Amino acid sequence: MQELTHFINGEHVKGTSGRFADVMNPATGEVQAKVPLANKAEMDAAVAAAQAAQPAWAAVNPQRRARVLMKFVDLLHRDMDKLAEALSREHGKTFPDAKGDIQRGLEVAEYCIAAPQMLKGEYTDAAGPGIDIYSMRQPLGVTAGITPFNFPAMIPMWMFAPAIACGNAFILKPSERDPSVPLMLAGLLEEAGLPKGIIQVVNGDKEAVDAILYDPIIQSVGFVGSTPIAEYIYGTGCAQGKRVQCFGGAKNHMIIMPDADLDQAADALVGAGYGAAGERCMAISVAVPVGEETADKLRDKLIPRIEKLKIAPYTAGVDVDYGPVVTAAAKENILRLVQTGVDQGADLVVDGRDFSLQGYEDGFFVGPHLFDRVTKDMDIYKTEIFGPVLSMVRAQSYEEALGLAMDHEYGNGTAIYTRDGDTARDFANRINVGMVGVNVPIPVPLAYHTFGGWKKSAFGDLNQHGPDSFKFYTRTKTVTSRWPSGIKEGGEFHFKQMD
Known about the structure:
The protein is α/β, with parallel strands linked by helices and 499 residues long. 38% of the residues lie in helices and 22% in strands. It folds into two domains: 2-248 and 457-479, Aldehyde Dehydrogenase, Chain A, domain 1; 252-438, Aldehyde Dehydrogenase, Chain A, domain 2, CATH 3.40.309.10. It is built from 16 helices and 23 strands. The strands form six sheets. A seven-stranded mixed β-sheet has the order 15-16-17-14-13-19-20, sandwiched between helices.
């Protein structure tokens, strides 16, 4: 049995707490490794190493810091298949999807190579007689991130790439369910030339999370996960005086207008609803066709597409549509919620409850499900299922469809499919959701824009990656400078008015 490690001060370090978590192979249901769960003493050691290393790293000019990220990007390309295989083995997602996970993180690292430009301050000369004013963006110090199981490469890179580019040290607490790729990424950073102590990976559970939240040295915390934990981390971290950004749950709606290309919309819904077994915070889980005729036609197009989905382990080839969910508990929760949908009166038109994959009966595979005639009082509508379940909620008008998305407590992503530019423009302007797709099902912005939801999907005033990341990982210092000419005598006891 493989025993994984922490990565502290440039070394792979065995756990000392005596506590471990099982790392599963979701396709077989077997334990493939054990990961140590850190105690406070282990987190303190990581923080101390980061605190000792960070001032020298902050003193390195941004261009040289960017060169480390340039090399890191090269190493990601070199080891892409190796990283993707490790990711698929622990998470269960298909091999192409795992490579996409790495690629979207890699693109943020590429964006952060622009640190010299992004960290430039502002300058005003002659703001007053002999007075100049300028601002500087300076690193926070030691920062930390708590990341989820569903994107074990992308989301850590969304956090540590800008943090490091800004001159901070970074402590990563990844998910204990699939920790190998984060450990591999830390090794690649140091191979790229990052000094020891600037990146630390400390595996753990709530004890490690609380150690981060209450440590006075750690200046900021980023989190992605469920909304209840996001609320806990945001409230606790802010109470400790930290800068905090937390991203929580989602229930993403796609509105399908009567004028939409229904074949295009059906293809988009199948990919966005069932890709990665629905374990994406940007997955489309609610389809809202406008009008009974639109709904009936869309349903007829969805059913054969869903029934043809290939569900298998990543080892079965690149044509696999999706693999297992991450744990047995996740599978049980998905099937429980499906049953509530049946019990509460929704029409289960594609029933995947009896799905079983020959040779992988102990794996955590969940068949695809399609509900029709779902109403907004049902649990399957209100709850983030995080599985291969798509719900159709029929709307009789555009305004009703818009209201469904606007009234939901989550506001991560949404999409509209239409051929009408006026409708699309109205939807984009009025919807109270952070990321909007127009004929795009999963509107995750590229690295040079920012990622973030609204309502109970996000807590904090700055988004992930893009320009916001450089704001989040720096403080602004403003200097007012005066160099008098000649010798001045006497003191001034009032504010001199500007000429």
